[in-house]
Amino acid sequence: MNGAALLIPLALAGAAAATVPGPQAGRWTHVTQLVSADIPGVPETLIRAADKREPRTTCLTAKQAAATPQVLLHAPGATCSSRSYTLAAGKIRGQSVCRVKELETPVKTITTGTYSAKGYVTRSVTTGRRNGQPLKVVTATSGKWLGACR
């Protein structure tokens, strides 16, 4: 698998918008789907096997929803040195530079999508290098508000 498992959930987001309500505080579910992947040294069958599409659940506090709703979409397991995201007029646009433990160099992810108070859909393109060769992973992520945090 070497890198594929952590690259698949690299979907991210940004700051609140005035014209479209930002993500609502509460419990959210997120599902990431692999669209395509070119990871040197990792067979396509292994990459597809890692695409389990298992939902993950997070809780967005009222404080986070008001100030930093981008934490809702941060990928677990990635350490990012820079993130630049905006949520405005129902659109998500952003980029990040992150490290994943299986790769020797950081990866760059460009994310675009749409959002509402109770849901979002993004498409992310992640590029980097593995064993000195270029890699590219494209994912689609959706999230849905489930209600109050428990």
Could you characterize what this model shows?
With 150 residues, the chain is mainly β. It has one domain (4-147): Lipocalin. It contains 3 helices and 7 strands. It has helices at 4-7, 44-50, 62-67, and strands at residues 26-38, 56-60, 79-88, 91-99, 107-116, 119-130, 133-147. The radius of gyration is 15 Å and the shape is globular.
In brief:
The chain has 150 residues and is mainly beta. The protein has helices at 4-7, 44-50, 62-67, and strands at 26-38, 56-60, 79-88, 91-99, 107-116, 119-130, 133-147. The protein has a single domain (4-147), classed as Beta Barrel (Lipocalin).
Topology:
Blueprint: H1 4-7, E1 26-38, H2 44-50, E2 56-60, H3 62-67, E3 79-88, E4 91-99, E5 107-116, E6 119-130, E7 133-147
Antiparallel strand pairs: 1-2, 1-7, 3-4, 4-5, 5-6, 6-7
- Secondary-structure content class: mainly beta
Strand content: over 45%
In DSSP terms (H or I, runs of 4 or more residues), the helix count works out at 3
| Helix proportion | 10-25%
Mean pLDDT reading: 81
Q: Low-confidence parts, pLDDT < 50 over ≥5 residues?
A: 1-18
Q: C-alpha Rg, in Å?
A: 15 Å
Shape verdict? globular
How many separate structural domains? 1
Please tag this protein with its features.
seven-stranded antiparallel sheet, Lipocalin, 7 strands, mainly beta, single chain, about 150 residues, disordered N terminus
